[in-house]
Amino acid sequence: MNWIKIDEAAKITGITKRAIRYYEEIGLIHPPERSDGQVRLYTDEDVKQLKRVVDAKEVLGFSLQELQHFLSIKERVLEHKDQYESTKDTTIQQSELEEIAVGLKEQEKMLQQKMEKMKSFQEELKDLIQKVDSLLNV
Amino acid sequence: MNWIKIDEAAKITGITKRAIRYYEEIGLIHPPERSDGQVRLYTDEDVKQLKRVVDAKEVLGFSLQELQHFLSIKERVLEHKDQYESTKDTTIQQSELEEIAVGLKEQEKMLQQKMEKMKSFQEELKDLIQKVDSLLNV
DNA sequence: CTTTACTATGACGCGAACGTCAAAGGTCCC
DNA sequence: GGGACCTTTGACGTTCGCGTCATAGTAAAG
């Protein structure tokens, strides 16, 4: 495995070291491994997750809390699927699954609305660009 | 004209009264008319503008400053177009127009990227919903 | 084993975007 | 015209998302 320290992880992702530690602090990313001396060591996977989280935050405008909520749901669902017949604590109750389904569908609806609004804003932007261009080409 | 006070405007738009006053304070919306006793009176147009501003903020994840910048550019461009042959102070210099064009095109590019990332996130969401549904229909 | 360069943790600071409260004044209805 | 209920301005408080020290420990090179 290729372990890197926080400074390199920061350089790769473009996120500051402080922000990375902060994301860990609020549970947005998994705490990475540590050296014997308590130094954080990141894998490629860790770095990927970091990038995805930041993308989602920037692009979707989700608050970090919302994002964390989504990620924990996702993990639990995937875990549930893998360990289908096990009876671990991580197993999700049927009733809870239904709630999750409702919540996710709600999210998808909101995302859809967001994208539509973005489109109309994009149109407006294009219009404005056209107008500016026509003013320039006289 | 149908004048409404801030409380009704707040109820219509879903924005708090404090936020509306704040938006006015930082120049995000035009100061509305006032009664003799200094009470803010909003028209339908004002309410529309409020909605659009908030939409843009929520959907695009713009900071209020960025948004204000965009709105002021837009207004000045439109004004420029109307008063084409006038020599008012509001007229935009050629050089400035070019800068604006560059800035707007940059914005459009970023918007495009955002929308693409949103799409892929939407796919992920749909996947997850499918998985949950398949877990429910056993 | 020392030096040099990171790293960890804790604490305080900060700007944005409001919330909240107080004091003073405005509106409207009977 | 006198309450009951808004509104305004000002000021301070709060939360989020980090930035920025300060202090102390760690890693790697020579």
UniProtKB/TrEMBL annotation, chains A, B:
Keywords: Coiled coil, DNA-binding. It comes from the Bacteria. Residues 104-138 form a coiled coil. InterPro entries: DNA-bd_dom_put_sf (IPR009061), MerR-type_HTH_dom (IPR000551), MerR_fam (IPR047057). Residues 1-73 form the HTH merR-type domain. SMART domains: HTH_MERR. Signal peptide: none annotated. PANTHER family: HTH-TYPE TRANSCRIPTIONAL REGULATOR YFMP, REDOX-CYCLING DRUG-SENSING TRANSCRIPTIONAL ACTIVATOR SOXR. This is MerR family transcriptional regulator. It comes from Fictibacillus fluitans.
